[in-house]
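Hi team,

Below is the intake form for Fertility inhibition FinO-like protein from Floridaenema evergladense BLCC-F167. Please confirm the fields before the structure is written into the shared record.

FORM ID: S-0412
PROTEIN: Fertility inhibition FinO-like protein
ORGANISM: Floridaenema evergladense BLCC-F167
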Amino acid sequence: MAVAGKLELTIKINDFPTNVETAENGWKRFEVDCDGRIASITVKPKVFKKLEEAQANYPMWVAAIAGKMGELTDEGFVLNEPNIQVFERKPKAPKEPVATPSAE
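The structure came back. Fields below:
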């Protein structure tokens, strides 16, 4: 008998979704292309606001959208119980060249 487990998915994005639709009760629906599979995501306005704030306040950011894999669609799947966390991305500082000892 197999051990019981819990399947959770995390989708990372760093671009604001352009295909956002407003569903009933103001919920926001958008799709993310995950290596050719389309994840359909529907979140409360308060949760979607995290993406809007990141777009407005951070020059670079990354969002982690976590949830459970839901029903399969023709193009991919529905992400159930999605939650969004947004993080500001800092540009990496250029590495300084390492000084090599000169041979005299």
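SUMMARY LINE: The CA atoms of residues 34 and 91 lie 24 Å apart.

Thanks, M.
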